[in-house]
């Protein structure tokens, strides 16, 4: 079982046990979308947006998991050496149909988070093309048959989604990493 698949399963169980039928994929997509649009990494802002997805107050037992998810996303987005993201999706041992549905949910969440936070920021042609691709991916539906061609297409979309947000984050988030001096003064 891969790390992202076990995280997906753990999140799905946690969400189900709290009575919230929210997809872990959609939840992570929402978080990444808002961060890529420049919403930052403020816990309260993220929890407020998650609350909209839950359509109720975020239960106290979910708060630490949501904040942990945000820390993971922050680490991946701000790492100088990051070339792709870890997506919270079902593993390869799950059916292609389930994985395809999750990719659609992830993309819908991303677009929702990005759209709610981008404001009037002017986007480059490349960023607009990525968003158009994401709109198309959000409409994905599973094929009737699970075959090698479907698996290849799934893997190509998955790889695209692991890198496209990094471009949008770089262009839109205006994130400035704290300098070593800033970090040291915060410690003292």
From TrEMBL:
Pfam family, one: UPF0149
InterPro entries named in the record: YgfB-like, YgfB-like_sf
Family membership: Belongs to the UPF0149 family.
NCBIfam families xrefs: PRK02166.1
The protein's name in its UniProt record: UPF0149 family protein
